Amino acid sequence: MSNNISRMVRNAMTMMAGTLASRILGLVREIITAAIFGASRSLDAFYVAYTLANLARQLLAEGALSAAFVPIFARALDEKGSDRARDLAKQASGALIGACIVVVSLGIFFTPWLVDVMAPGFDGEKAELAIKLTRWLFPFLMMVSLAALAMGVLNSMDRFFVPAVAPALSNLAYITVVVLFASRADVALLVWAVMIGGFLQMALQLFAAHREGVSLVPSLPKRDDPELKKMILLFLPYAAGLSLNQVNPVISRIMGSFLQDGAISVLTYANRVIQLPLGLIVIAISQAVLPELSRCVVEGNDVFRDTVRDSVRFALFAILPITLGACMVSDSVINVLFYRGAFDQWAWKATSEALFMYALGLPGMACSTVIMRALYAKGLSRSAVIVTSSSVVFNLILSYSMMKWIGFSGLALAPSVAFTISAAVGIYLLSLRIGGPIGLFGFSWVSKMAISGVVLFLSVRAFELLWPFPSQASLAIRSGWIGLIFISGMTSYGIITYGLRCGEWEWIKGAFRAKRKSR
Q1: Euclidean distance between CA atoms 72 and 474, whole angstroms
Q2: What is the pLDDT of residues 103-114, one digit of tens each?
Q3: Where in or outside the cell is it found (predicted)?
């Protein structure tokens, strides 16, 4: 079983390496957007349009498709060979393209209604701009859907670097287009930047899948194919569940539209920052663990339970220091990243508050994401829908109540609490399905994490007391301060966890040993 975890950690570390470039470029993308457009009415309209297109992408492609495709494709590849797996992938490609055509057409037709639902607080001019941008963006779905299918193929074949780094091309294209043409165009330019990036992201992953021997040239789906039928049957409830989960960002947009101008932009900037650790650690681990869990399902509940437990622990081991650090220095991070150009004092402080609230939810997101992958691997579609439903219900209730209390900060805190609750629901349901508790939070492990967190907190606080953040200094000095406090905190966390003999270090060492053997 330790070999399974070491392999998962190795694949997750590969994903992290590739994702790092993408997430850094994503931050650069938002920094440039903030400097040019600030927190404005037109940018609010663009973000509503992008949210709608992105919602369809996450639902149809990267969400339900991945959850339904990867476990079945991985088992077909292991049990029936590459020829069968290639045929299944081509049929899935044909079904996906057909579904995308339908969704894009319906999306363009119903755009005015969708924008009205997404941002009911927009006035006439602002709503018209959001409608126009949304219609232009919907074809983006086709490109990223095929990219997501290719990602599923590559992940099932233990190829993780290209899928992780492919979004970097998208961000690089966005940055290039905006920098070159922003002075001669309005916010509509951002649509073309997104579209060009989506095409490059698709092309790279399709080429990589072809190099691995799986060409995703679509073929007509066969009605009597049992594995394709099972994939579709899993896809439908997963799509229903994930459609509920994707309601969470929609809730923030809807309620944010009733707040002051710039509220949606502030939440988007903060969310972009939190996507760096979320994508670098949480999503990387969840992507790596899904094929691993799909394989170990046949090894029995004991092996599956241990793999889930250790995967969640590793995710928390990696995300806890980031959570604590982000909460402690959110103000300084936003100052370095965005405080320039049209991004003024109000936007700085508001985005810092939102980042703090989002950061509180990282551990819950880590648990919830890995547990959801475990439910997918076991084919427990009903339980997955219950977990996502719980996050939406609690997010809706908390967003409404907290918005009245602390404004846009409440819209950032609500999903953090909701994801933590849904993680607990997922752990409970999975425990019932595998015949016993997962045993995540043993006394020894919790004690070690608590001690490590205290040491990290004290080291960061000592650094701030010895050298307070130089908010009036040059960008280079402020950036250096962020880098040094990050190194100081992570070093102290690494030393104390290693000294306490946390088992996660053994998995990391096992992953590096496996990498050396594979060379």
Answers
A1: 53
A2: 889 888 988 888
A3: Cell membrane
Contact in structure between 95 and 232 (CB atoms under 8 Å): yes
Query: In the block, which residue shows the tokens 């250096």?
Result: 480
Q: What is the CA radius of gyration of the chain?
A: 22
436, containing H or E segment? none
Q: In the 3-class helix/strand/coil scheme, how is 201-232 assigned residue by residue? A: HHHHHHHHHHHCCCCCCCCCCCCCCHHHHHHH
Residue 1 burial (CB count, 10 A): 14
Instruction: Give the 3-state DSSP-derived string for 339-355, with helices as H, strands as E and coil as C.
Output: CCCCCCHHHHHHHHHHH
Give Cβ neighbours of residue 265 (< 8 Å, ≥ 6 apart). Answer: 38, 39, 40, 43, 44, 47, 347
Alpha-carbon distance 260 to 443, whole Å?
Answer: 46
Report the alpha-carbon distance of residue 156 to residue 310 in Å, rounded: 20
Rounded to 5°, angle at Cα 155 from 235 and 205: 95
Tokens of 503: 């088992």
- Residue 516, pLDDT above cutoff 50: yes
At 403-418, the pLDDT tens digits run 888 888 899 999 999 9
Q: 289 and 12 in contact (C-beta within 8 Å)?
A: yes
Q: Which two tokens mark 486?
A: 């990050």
